[in-house]
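Methods: example folding runs. The two proteins below were folded one after another, and each record is reproduced exactly as written to the output file, sequence line first and structure-token line second.
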Amino acid sequence: MQNEPGDKDKSRYPRHIAIIMDGNGRWAQQRHLPRIMGHPAGVKAVKRVVQFCAEQEIQVLTLFAFSSENWRRPKDEVSKLMSLFMMTMQKEVNRLDKNNIRLRFIGERADFSEKIQQKMADSEQQTENNTGLTLVIAANYGGHRDITLAMQVIAQRVKEGIIQPEDIDESMIANALSIPDLPDPDLFIRSGGEERVSNFLLWQLAYTEFYFTSELWPDFKAETMQAAIDDFLTRERRFGRTSEQVQNLSS
């Protein structure tokens, strides 16, 4: 049986929500501000969404903060983004820890400054024993690179004779990717009006439900999140089965 919008049975809610936070620059430009001014406003939206997910007992929230392609942006904007990233971690990690939220990062850290890398590690260590929402920040992340690195790890194991090529299966590949210990996203949200995944969690999104909205990220609020979840609750997730099979399984 399909769920109805507004269903408050949280056992039916997505366990893992992944979001591409798009529209900060356009939000600022609409207000005749420099593009970079949209990013602090975007941080405020992050706080609202994290609070919402914690209150709604969502297990995992993954946010695409900075893609491996974002280094191509103007150097001044990237520099200010890095400063904002560092400042936000410094200000928010204690708040996350106090609220029993576990913070994790995925992506290649080597391209960040040593100071940012250290703060990432310290933040993860400080919150690693928390048991509430797991907040995953994808920073300098790319789905193609994630899969490529996983293949390299598996190929090395074959080269060393630890496994044979025929031993490679989907489970082995999944376990070599980022966050293998967390459930794959049930719901993917993208703000800002674009309708593509932009190299985000390509393997993990195979059976994810997609929700696109034209609302720019700084305008995101609890009501927007609830609307996305309400839409998710109307979906019939078949995973290759027929509707009749799904109904029989749920009866």
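Second run, written to the same file directly after the first:
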Amino acid sequence: MSDPFFKPVSGMDLPRFAGVPSFMRLPHLGFDHPRVQDVQVGIVGVPWDSGTTNRPGPRHGPRQLRDASTMIRAENGATGVRPFELVNCADMGDVGPNPADIPDSMDRITAFYADLKARGITPLTAGGDHLSSLPILRALAADAPVGMVHFDSHTDLFHSYFGGTMYTHGTPFRRAVEEGLLDPRRVVQIGIRGTAYDREDIDFAASVGIRIIKIEEFFQRGVADVMAEAREIVGTGDTYVSYDIDFVDPTYAPGTGTPEVGGPNSFQALQVVRELDGLNIIGADMVEVSPPFDESGGTAFLGVSIMFELLCVMAKRLAA
């Protein structure tokens, strides 16, 4: 059971529109806080989008996601899981990026997550563009490659952009395979779709053993069957979960930089995470929520609802 110190503020005690927002109304702790050694799951913001190549804005994602997350309550209505009673959760703040320097920002992110790992804190991240996942993996997979379940409309497996730029939101998992952070035979990418320049990313995936489940196959087989295969691919080993909000159809999640039509609805977006139950998740992220394109705030609320589903499966596993 969790410590009462780590319980979120209830909307019955303080209205959800009041107070200083933190992720899911949890206590906000820095590394120097005397209770940080008791944190089991830390929710972290990575307000950084220097890897974006078209429509910027995800650097503002963590702030909007925090605000939207004040609507999250104590119990998962579908699964019955009460994560805040299973493990000690806290808002660990934001990584401070250098918006003018990609390598320096990645070093800062890696150092922050290495500190979390050293303290035994499992991170749940709010991005940020998808390049954010690479420096996180550099910390979490420093000792051995991990598996990954990746929800996205794009593979993010490209070699480079613009004649040799190696670090963009379209290249993180190519770099992660090359750097030995991901075991490609334990990586599954779900929801891939849209127009393309060529098949370079698809060919690379095939050459190293990454399993790509395109959206047509996803809809043909259904959530339960696809996710059963995903669980089989990653197995019982350490697994990272990366969730790009553009996995979801832009009808339901318009607030993102690179939307692709023909995706899952918001209910299916939650279902796929529930099917991760039992996996050994060492970290997870929600990326590419872009407030400038999210006038209603609905994309951010879907994003934090997905984060809550991720937290539920992570907490249940950690408490087992």
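Comment on the second run: The domain at 4-319 is CATH 3.40.800.10 (Arginase; Chain A).
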